[in-house]
Write a structure and sequence with these properties.
The complex is a heterodimer of chains A (394) and B (251). Chain A has 394 residues and is α+β, with helices and mostly antiparallel strands. Chain A contains 8 helices and 24 strands. In chain A, the strands form 6 sheets. A 6-stranded mixed sheet of chain A has the order 12-11-10-22-23-24, covered by helices on one side. In chain A, strands 3, 4, 7, 8 and 9 form a 5-stranded antiparallel sheet that branches. In chain A, strands 1-2-6-5 form a 4-stranded antiparallel sheet, with no helix packed on it. In chain A, strand 14, helix 6 and strand 15 form a beta-alpha-beta unit. In chain A, helix 2 runs parallel beside helix 3. Chain A starts with a helix and ends with a strand. By secondary structure, chain B is mainly α. Chain B contains 12 helices and no strands. In chain B, helix 2 runs antiparallel to helix 3, helix 7 packs antiparallel against helix 9 and helix 9 runs antiparallel to helix 10. Classes of the chains: A alpha+beta (394), B mainly alpha (251). Bound molecules: fe (ii) ion.
Chain lengths: 394, 251
């Protein structure tokens, strides 16, 4: 009798403390104050009565904690797969703080999760993860997600993963998205810290509408998926290599770079198709964007798409230039078979540049007026490479 | 006799450049054939690269053999088909669903000399070029960003200022409509030198935009597009031949 009773008790406690499918936190332009908490629903009716409670810098069971409640949520039906997305908008968050949150519906409650918002103070330490291309190797994707989880534990100042595109192979297949979203749960730490996600579109995210739905690009105001993410005085300039490089996007890029450089921001463009590729032919960014990067002196660039690890020598005006040159880092190693980048022996990989066939993520750490970028690889606690960028005097 | 030899040599010269462009592409960057076997089928990278390289070198061998027996032009067509087909399979770019139809001029171009009859020769090129025009037209109407950027850049070079994206999208839309129109017209008015001549001009001009704008990076893309103007040129020569020699076959 007692066993049955314990079993029933255990069962009921499980149903109360339930998982919320594909739980994730999205950040776009203002990671200091805004975040979206999103999860997937099988049926629209399951949304009823959902609410989110959160507290800042204090866990909810602590004394005198201020608990904020959000009962307003939005639900949308996904274009493919017959599922729904539920989103809570967390606006007016406090910069540089830990947000503890819990979601509940009338019959279930989530664990207490947390994530961090970006600092505003440019002297505050800050870290980000960068990576792209996780499109066709779920096992390796999970290995890399586990690696990123470990990096978050070791570097608690990490705010988010800035992604470089090509999450899945066929952007029109919900089954692939579903698997990707499941695999991303591996990044959640054992103490329930979530790694927020900053999205960029790759060439395999072929279904524009579905991509925008999944990452709430329209709601964030960036339906064309080019925008700046401000991490204190570091501006990540996310660009979209799937659309015109010369139209509205170029105009926006030029005025953005002009504005950011006059205000003394660190400027780091992040986009999918590379200007200085390790493997394939150069994308249009080389012709249409690189001259702007050079004119306004961006600090370094993140690219994806090639499925290889690369670091270029500093490049300026099509030549190696150690004073004015820009380093291009990349290009996609979060869960796709890595290519042998040796073909072609391109000039821009001469020392200190290199290319390797190796899964990887980049860890960016900003501290005391300089940025350290390290290359993090699975199965090793040591960084594969490390480089330091000093602020340019534009 | 003179024009027969001339047409044959023009064809072979164009075909040689077309094959070489693909071959260089294979060795320099790799194609979606290798990507498919490496990424989707899980082959070792070396094996998948070897496969596409052997296939590329075979195309050159078939080219040489075709001087002996013209049926060897068929596997060359298959070679170009495979490149486009695996592009479709791998996907991940604008209009990837239509790529085989949009590339039909490249795919069928080697078949030109396979046929004995001038009528068949003309038809095979005509269908290829018309399909390429019609499907590029559809892509343009759908707003292919590649075309948009070529137009915006072209405009900026001529007028020293950038046109608005909205205007460019509209213009590219109508360029697409005209591409479809001339593609269809070419199939109807098969003997009209002006229509076929326009195909040759437009095919050449749009191919030439690549090296003009992208410099060295645009050279291979230009030669890959050789059939876009070579096929209409051969059609014109055939039309003249049909007129002059009263349907006597070239071969
Ligand atoms: Fe890609």
């Amino acid at each position: 009798m007692r066993t049955i009773f314990t079993f029933v008790l255990l069962l009921s406690s499980f149903s109360v403390m339930a998982e919320f499918k594909h739980l994730r936190v999205l950040m776009h332009s203002d990671p200091s104050h805004k975040a979206m908490v999103v999860y997937t629903l099988d049926k629209k009716k399951y949304a009823k009565g959902s609410e989110l409670v959160y507290s800042i810098n204090q866990k909810m069971d602590e004394k005198d904690v201020k608990i904020n409640k959000i009962t307003k949520y939005s639900v949308k039906s996904l274009k493919r797969g017959g599922k729904y997305l539920l989103k809570f908008d967390l606006n007016n968050l406090k910069e540089n703080s830990t947000v503890y949150f819990k979601i509940s519906t009338p019959n279930k409650t989530s664990k207490l999760y947390h994530f961090k918002t970006a600092p505003k103070d440019k002297n505050a330490p800050l870290a980000l993860l960068f990576g792209g291309d996780s499109r066709s190797d779920s096992a390796q994707r999970r290995v890399m997600n586990k690696k990123m989880k470990e990096l978050v534990v070791q570097n608690p100042e990490i705010i988010a993963l800035v992604f470089g595109g090509d999450m899945i192979e066929n952007g029109m297949k919900w089954s692939q998205w579903e698997k990707w979203l499941e695999d991303y749960q591996v990044t959640i730490t054992d103490d329930n810290r979530i790694l927020p996600f900053v999205p960029v579109r790759g060439n395999h995210e072929t279904d524009r509408k579905l991509f925008n739905q999944l990452f709430f690009m329209d709601e964030a105001g960036f339906e064309d998926v080019y925008y700046v993410s401000y991490f204190s005085d570091l501006a990540i300039i996310n660009l979209n290599t799937n659309i015109s490089h010369l139209g509205k996007q170029r105009k926006w890029l030029e005025s953005t770079l002009k504005d950011l450089s006059s205000k003394g921001y660190w400027m780091v463009p992040n986009y999918h198709r590379p200007a200085y590729p390790a493997v394939k032919s150069p994308g249009k960014a080389k012709k249409h964007w690189v001259p702007l990067f050079e004119k306004y002196g961006v600090d370094f660039v993140f690219e994806s798409d090639g499925h290889a690890l690369k670091r270029t020598a500093p490049i300026f005006n099509g030549e190696i230039n150690h004073q004015k040159g820009i380093v291009y880092l990349g290009e996609g190693g979060l869960g796709v078979r890595q290519r042998n980048p040796d073909r072609g022996n391109k000039w821009y990989f001469q020392s200190p540049g290199y290319t390797y066939s190796m899964h990887h993520a980049f860890l960016l750490r900003k501290k005391n007026g300089s940025i350290k970028v390290s290359v993090e690889v699975p199965d090793s606690n040591k960084s594969f490479d490390q480089m330091t960028f000093e602020k340019r005097n534009n | 006799m003179q024009s027969k030899k001339m047409i044959k040599s023009i064809f072979y010269a164009f075909l040689f450049f077309q094959i070489m462009a693909s071959l260089i592409n294979i060795f320099k960057y790799g194609t979606d054939i290798g990507s498919y076997f490496f990424l989707t089928r899980g082959w070792a990278e070396d094996s998948s690269l070897l496969l596409e390289r052997v296939w590329g070198v075979s195309a050159i061998a078939f080219f040489a053999l075709s001087f002996w027996k013209r049926q060897f032009l068929i596997p060359i067509s298959l070679f170009f088909f495979s490149i486009s087909f695996f592009k479709y399979v791998q996907g991940g770019f604008f209009g990837s669903d239509l790529v085989v139809y949009a590339h039909l001029a490249r795919i069928v171009f080697p078949l030109f000399l396979v046929f004995k009859s001038d009528i068949y020769k003309k038809w095979v090129l005509l269908i290829g070029v018309a399909s390429t025009f019609i499907f590029h037209g559809i892509e343009a109407m759908m707003g292919n960003p590649e075309f948009l950027d070529l137009f915006i850049y072209f405009y900026s070079v001529i007028f020293k200022s950038f046109p608005s994206e909205q205007l460019s999208t509209q213009i590219i839309y109508w360029v697409g409509v005209s591409d479809i129109l001339v593609g269809v017209l070419a199939l109807i008015f098969r003997k009209n030198i002006f229509i076929i001549g326009y195909l040759a001009f437009w095919g050449f001009f749009t191919a030439l935009l690549r090296p003009i704008f992208y410099g060295q990076d645009g050279i291979i893309p230009f030669f890959e597009r050789v059939p876009h103007f070579a096929a209409p040129i051969l059609i014109i020569l055939l039309i003249k031949n049909l007129k002059n020699r009263n349907h006597r076959s070239l071969l």
